[in-house]
Target: Thioredoxin-like protein, putative
Amino acid sequence: MESGGAAEQAILQMAEQIERAIDDEMSRVDNMDDDDLAEIRKRRMKQLKEMDKRRVEWLQKGHGIYDEVQDLPQFFQVMKASERVIVHFMRRATSRCMILDRHLSQIAKEHFETKFMYVDVERHPSLAERFNIVMLPTLMLVEKQNTFHSIIGFDEFGGNDEFTTDVCCKVLGTHGMLNDKGMFAADQNDD
Model:
């Protein structure tokens, strides 16, 4: 019984600390003057301009669309130009590849922070061989020119064909490939 009481007491103390911190922050906000608010607006405008600049850079690099890899030089050029790349190794005759293809083409339109592309392994078998792709579909997740993870099949999406685009986004987000705001903290200057 005593350990339960101690645990309750610890939780109560944490809750009180959190409440004090919230009260302090609310008080700080309530006591802001026009200069403080102007400074906040100025910083936010700077962040928005920086985000817009990054979005323009990403669009110039072909982000925002789901591209087919045309040849090996183009593949490696994209890898060098983009910080985050998701590559779908697929075959059009494979139904699960087409399911993933549909999700990725939708996600690419909304997430400019990551470059999306696909490799039709029937057209470019050497790329699949080069990266040891043995099962389709396979998503190769690349950050700063390094493949750090591959999603093979649908296991990470729930193991069935009925997963939603939101589920796909969440899985890609857990691997650091997507951000729900479309901008990564590392991409922003918080001066």
About this structure: The radius of gyration is 23 Å. The chain has six helices and five strands. Residues 2-57 form one domain.
